[in-house]
Specification:
single chain; mainly alpha; CD225/Dispanin_fam; TUSC5 protein; membrane; CD225/Dispanin; rod-shaped
């Protein structure tokens, strides 16, 4: 036997609706009538985090690594660091829209691409400097 999620409640103005003199109405748990919000509580923006995160505590805003991606743009590996910058901006946009999982995923990709860009850029710079110094020392 499964338990039902409905119950009977006395509501004002419902005394004659069910055909009995008793003021009871059968409603389900998901369809309870809630009082309207006061005008001071209405908002056109996102709901506050305290109202939306009742099950799990808020873990903070996901990192988008925008500063790291901008720093990687100074390395000479432009296709990779531009893609890292795009992923970082997409991560920031996803976080602002409330998609924390997508923001974390895009942020990790931006961090990875930024680090790869910085490492490859450092290798390219070191190789360029070492080859140019070696080329100037021809005896």
């Amino acid at each position: 036997l499964r338990g039902s999620k409905s119950f009977t409640a006395a509501l004002p103005g419902e005394t004659e609706r069910n055909g009995h003199g008793l003021g009871y109405k059968s409603v389900s748990v998901g369809h309870l009538e809630a009082p309207p919000l006061s005008p001071s509580r209405l908002s056109l923006g996102r709901a506050s985090s305290t109202a939306t995160s009742t099950a799990a505590p808020e873990q903070g805003r996901p990192r988008d690594y925008l500063v790291l991606a901008i720093f990687s743009c100074f390395c000479p590996v432009w296709p990779i660091n531009i893609v890292a910058l795009v992923f970082s901006i997409m991560s920031r946009n996803s976080g602002q829209q409330g998609d924390t999982d997508g923001a974390r995923r895009l942020g990790r990709m931006a961090r990875l691409l930024s680090i790869v860009s910085i490492v490859l850029g450092t290798i390219i710079i070191v190789l360029y400097i070492s080859l140019s110094v070696r080329g100037n020392h021809s005896f």
